[in-house]
Amino acid sequence: MPVSQKNSVAVLTHPSGASAEVHLFGATLTSWKVDGKERVFVSKQAVLDGSKAIRGGIPLIFPVFGKGKAPHVTASLPQHGFARISRWTLANSSEDAHTVTAQFALDHTTISIEHRELWPYDFSLVYTVKLAANTIETHLRVHNVGDKPFDFNTLLHTYFMIPDASKVRVIGLSGCDYTDKVLQKSSRQEGDVVIRGEVDSVYAGVKLSDIQIQFGEGEGGIQVHKNGLGDIVVWNPWIEKSAGMADFGDEEYHRMICVEAGQVAEFIALAPEGYWEGSQVLSLL
Ligand code: TA6
């Protein structure tokens, strides 16, 4: 079966042997394997029982990035919004000669009453995961199905498995202005991004579509091809922040980097009946 559902996990299996797993909780992709090797990072201490966002994989951020700020309507929502902590449904699946596809759905009638009251807009999200032999695409479509305009952020909060954070380089952001949330200042990226401590940087309006994560000399890497997503967030909690997260091992920061494509610097306005879509395609270097 190219797409099957075991309990609350959709499993995609490609004829090449590639596979992916998506928890219906948050429509969080928690595994992407190519050549038998796991390519996304999920903390060994991640909570998978639906009681909190999954620490790893690709949490789906909507309708707000971070903590909303009053008087914006998102100010009362949980950090990073409700999509990653809501129960989605596996809406349909399909396959063709090259890909296996699963689609997940969430809308204003299926989120919790609490979240509905905090964010009273009629919406429909369709999240599509398309697995090929060596790539995986994650695509989000937002539809305003109500009679009130709303605005939103969205982000594919992707955690990548890496051999060693001290060797990783993120290529494609040189010359981009960014907000350094660690030093609380604006800056301009000079050269590749490297990890020498906590990194929490928001690059707005990144012109390049392809951002590369190089694992180290001769150790390969992953390319993020973004479409309709203008911003990139790079995050590694390093030592202190790792120690403060109950669902993250103290030493796990060595083995992960978040390179997150999204629309977070500005809110996207969506008129009644309006659609918005954005996606990323991950491929091996
Ligand atoms: O994407 C980076 C970030 O916004 C960091 O500031 C950090 O808060 C991270 O997300 C994880 O957030 P979470 O709510 O999942 O603990």
Characterization of the model:
With 285 residues, the protein is mainly beta. It has a single domain, classed as Beta-galactosidase, Chain A, domain 5 (Distorted Sandwich), CATH 2.70.98.10. The protein is 4% helix and 46% strand. The chain contains 2 helices and 22 strands. A 9-stranded antiparallel β-sheet has the order 7-8-9-10-22-19-18-13-16, with no helix packed on it. Strands 6, 11, 12, 14, 15, 17, 20 and 21 form an 8-stranded antiparallel β-sheet that branches. 6-O-phosphono-beta-D-tagatofuranose binds next to β20 and β21.
Structure at a glance:
The protein has 285 residues and is mainly beta. The protein has helices spanning 113-118, 238-243; strands spanning 3-6, 9-13, 19-23, 28-34, 37-38, 60-61, 89-95, 100-107, 123-131, 135-144, 150-156, 159-161, 169-171, 177-180, 185-188, 193-194, 199-203, 210-214, 221-227, 231-236, 256-270, 275-284. The chain has one domain: Beta-galactosidase, Chain A, domain 5.
Order of SSEs = EEEEEEEEHEEEEEEEEEEEEHEE
Name the structural class: mainly beta
Shape: globular
Helix content: under 10%
* β-sheet strand percentage: over 45%
Count of strand segments: 22
Biggest β-sheet: count, sense, barrel? 9 strands, antiparallel
CATH classification, class level: Mainly Beta
Question: What is the annotated CATH architecture?
Answer: Distorted Sandwich
The averaged pLDDT comes out at: 98
Low-pLDDT sequence parts: none
What is the CATH topology?
Beta-galactosidase, Chain A, domain 5
Beginning-to-end CA distance, first to last residue: 29 Å
Write down the Rg: 18 Å
The hetero compounds bound to this protein are: 6-O-phosphono-beta-D-tagatofuranose
How is the quaternary structure best described?
A: single chain
Number of domains: 1
Strand order in space, largest sheet: 7-8-9-10-22-19-18-13-16
The tally of helices reads 2
Catalytic activity: alpha-D-glucose 6-phosphate = beta-D-glucose 6-phosphate
GO molecular function, one term: carbohydrate binding
Active site: 157, 260
Protein name: Glucose-6-phosphate 1-epimerase
